[in-house]
Amino acid sequence: MDGNHDDLVALRSRPIEADGRRRVSEHVWHLPRGHRWVWEDTVWVAAGGAVSVDRYGRTEGVSWFRDEELTDAEVDLIIAGGTADVVVSHDAPWGVGTLERRLSLDLRPSERESLWPDDLLEESDDHMKRVRRLVDGVTASRVFHGHHHVRYDDVLAATHGSVTVVKGLGDNQGLIDQAWILVDEAGRPIC
Questions:
Q1: Which of 5, 31, 99, 152 could bridge to 46 as Cys pair (CB 3.0-4.6 Å)?
Q2: Average pLDDT, rounded, for the chain
């Protein structure tokens, strides 16, 4: 799955294998946006993308790429593909309490204490809302993401009448166990 600092043009130049994945190297595969797979009886779907709020300090085509965001059209196609039990996304869905408290998402960008420009915070908010629409649209019960570099567990009151468990992953700058989760076929943590 791709994140906001990945070169999608380069990724998309690689052929898609019969199973729907792209080989990047011997042990690394890219899960294209909307790629679905089934483990046991659990349907998983990949949804990449996010907004680089640090874009103005990056170089276009080198460390920032225009197609970094999941588009409305991609979200529509993923939803049209049917339900999925688990969403693996780069960005978080809008409405996660842990992130709202950490990032002051209940405030307008101009009211937030932030290092990032207001226009990019607004774009980031819009992207998270797109991810939320996707999660609700496929009626997912679990979401895993890593864009915000914070390890947390939270729940969303889902529009489909249940709750969606959201697990954020940390980055590789801290404890390694904050940057990964070992799960079973249904997306339930094993440890």
A1: 31
A2: 89
